[in-house]
Design brief:
Distance between the termini: 66 Å
Oligomer: single chain
Radius of gyration: 25 Å
Structural class: mainly alpha
Largest sheet: 4 strands, mixed
Strand content: under 5%
Shape: globular
Helix content: over 70%
Strand order of the largest sheet: 1-2-4-3
Number of strands: 4
């Protein structure tokens, strides 16, 4: 078991380093015509220096994370935690307090360096130390609480299941159904709280431009689910970043745009971005959505199988206890090992999910093109790329595996192509 765990961790680290090599090899190539005008010579050199600064700190952070993972999994740490209590809930709590606290401390140091050393150096940070501390506290306290709640629920469910001698298929279906319902409710609550955390981190005000609001409402007139809440958030208090997003939570929909965007771009560029977001509202279910639903069905069927064959779970837990010399089940460790075992599967799922996400982004871009904002969308993307020092010509393999939005080169090529096709079609008609 330990050898297999070590193999997966090392392979993942080496593959990640290989992708980093490909990223930097790609950056040595000249930019193609579609994105050549995003950076002038000096700005491109600044982009390279910016990425080099991040390369160093990311490399150190990944190496430290690797060492921590190896120490946690291959040292007597879990045996030490096992000696502290024979209560499964306390064992999980001790594991979270020890291991997660170390990870959070390293994460805060990493965030601080990136914010006040790298982002500050390149003029991208507007955060004060007070805002930084507030954001880190909110995010980490929320993360802590969510992790504790989910881990405790996992312990409760598994402890209940392994205490039952025999579970028939009908009872297994009922149990899995209840678990799915409970976890769905919990996830919705977590999503709601995460929105509240975001609302605490930023100030959101209603968009007060009547001309923009009228055009936005006109653009979404043929969407089945319309957005009534259109807000502006104060990104300028933290950075010079420009962004816009569509928040979807059950029946609630909200468009929000950064104040930097609103203050520095003209109306047609802003409408191009809103038209893109409205494109997401108009998304129609396709074969890829069906594939996601099928995957969920398979996961539920697998859960039913495991619950109805509970001896498999018992054997796995006993195996973990034997390998680590534990007297009490440590479900934190069990979840860690399951997570590592599932890494190859999750890699495939993540790659497929990124592909679907990129398709959806192209679809949303096409909505902006159909509404006559193709040129404005390109200009906006180019300005954003230059302002935020974006990798505009990423390696194809890296983009395929890791990007949930299209790389700028492929994105602009798509917009130019579709814009030209629509113009030809309009001219013919």
């Amino acid at each position: 078991m330990k050898l297999f765990i070590l193999l997966i961790i090392i392979i993942e680290y080496i593959f990640d380093e290989y992708l980093t090599y490909r990223i930097w090899k790609q950056r040595s190539k000249p930019l193609p015509d579609e994105v050549k005008d995003i950076y002038d010579h000096d700005r491109y050199l600044e982009f390279i220096e910016y990425k080099k600064a991040y390369k160093k700190v990311i490399g150190i952070n990944k190496f430290i994370s690797l060492i921590i993972s190896l120490v946690v999994l291959f040292s007597p740490l879990f045996k030490l935690i096992d000696s502290l209590s024979n209560n499964v809930y306390l064992i999980v709590l001790y594991s979270i307090l020890i291991i997660d606290t170390i990870s959070i401390i390293i994460s805060i140091i990493y965030d601080y360096y990136c914010t006040f050393k790298i982002e500050e150096k390149f003029g991208k940070n507007h955060k004060t130390l007070k805002i930084f501390i507030k954001d880190e506290l909110l995010e980490n306290v929320f993360g802590y609480l969510v992790n504790i709640i989910l881990q405790m629920l996992f312990v409760m469910v598994v402890e209940y299941l392994i205490s039952i001698d025999h579970i028939n298929i009908l009872k297994a279906i009922l149990i899995v159904g209840i678990i799915v319902l409970v976890f769905t409710i919990i996830i919705l609550v977590i999503m709601f709280i995460s929105v509240l955390v975001m609302k605490t981190q930023y100030q959101f005000t209603d968009l007060d431009s009547s001309s923009l609001l009228d055009t936005i409402n006109q653009l979404q007139s043929d969407a089945k689910k319309k957005v009534k809440h259109i807000t502006v958030y104060n990104e300028s208090s933290k950075s010079n970043s420009k962004n816009a997003f569509l928040l979807k939570l059950l029946w609630y929909r909200e468009f929000s745009i950064a104040d930097n965007f609103l203050n520095e771009n003209d109306h047609r560029e802003i409408l191009a971005v809103f038209s893109h977001e409205i494109g997401h509202l108009k998304h129609k279910k396709d074969i890829y959505d069906l594939a996601k639903y099928l995957l969920l069905v398979l996961v539920v069927l697998l859960a039913v199988y495991l619950v109805s064959n509970i001896s498999i779970i018992r054997i796995f837990i006993e195996r973990v206890n034997d390998v680590y010399g534990l007297n009490t089940n440590n479900y934190y460790l069990i979840m860690m090992i399951i997570g590592i075992y599932l890494k190859p599967v999750m890699f495939i799922i993540e790659t497929a999910s990124n592909y679907i996400s990129r398709r959806n982004e192209y679809e949303a871009d096409y909505n902006a093109i159909k509404n006559g904002y193709g040129k404005e969308l390109i200009k906006t993307f180019k300005d954003l790329s230059s302002d935020e020092l974006v990798d505009v010509y990423p390696d194809q393999l890296v983009e395929f595996l890791k990007y949930n939005h299209p790389g700028m080169y492929n994105r602009i090529k798509f917009i130019l192509k579709k814009d030209e096709e629509l113009n030809e079609k309009n001219n013919i008609s």
